[in-house]
């Protein structure tokens, strides 16, 4: 979460005047997804404490972490270094985000089924 705040502040105070508006929009997308999924990681941790540890929750957390690193990380690098080939890797991070949320939903559903 702190890294998302740091990247957001860096974007607002340093790179906004340097990047083109299009590239800054991409940077902002990276920051937004970083924030959303950092909050998701906190949610997974809180649910795990409340419900109990689960393989599905672990998988979910690993996928969200990988998604932040790959999706947001490649967008940060793409905008700051203009390394075009990184754009081809970014969707892998998006898939990791999707899998993370699917695994979380499966974990919650499995736990709800066990409680009945």
TrEMBL record:
The chain crosses the membrane at residues 33-52, 61-79, 85-110. Keywords: Membrane, Transmembrane, Transmembrane helix. The keyword Transcription regulation does not apply. InterPro entries: DUF423. This is DUF423 domain-containing protein. It is a multi-pass membrane protein. Belongs to the UPF0382 family. It is found in: Membrane. GO terms for cellular component: plasma membrane. The keyword Cytoplasm does not apply.
């Amino acid at each position: 979460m702190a890294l998302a705040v740091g990247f957001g502040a860096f974007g607002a105070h340093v790179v906004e005047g340097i990047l083109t508006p299009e590239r800054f929009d991409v940077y902002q997308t990276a920051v937004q997804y970083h924030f959303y999924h950092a909050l998701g990681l906190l949610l997974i941790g809180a649910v795990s404490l409340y419900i109990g540890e689960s393989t599905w929750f672990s998988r979910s957390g690993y996928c969200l972490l990988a998604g932040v690193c790959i999706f947001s990380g490649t967008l940060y690098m793409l905008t700051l270094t203009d390394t075009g080939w990184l754009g081809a890797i970014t969707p892998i991070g998006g898939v990791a985000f999707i899998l993370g949320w699917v695994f979380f939903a499966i974990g919650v559903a499995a736990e709800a089924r066990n409680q009945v």
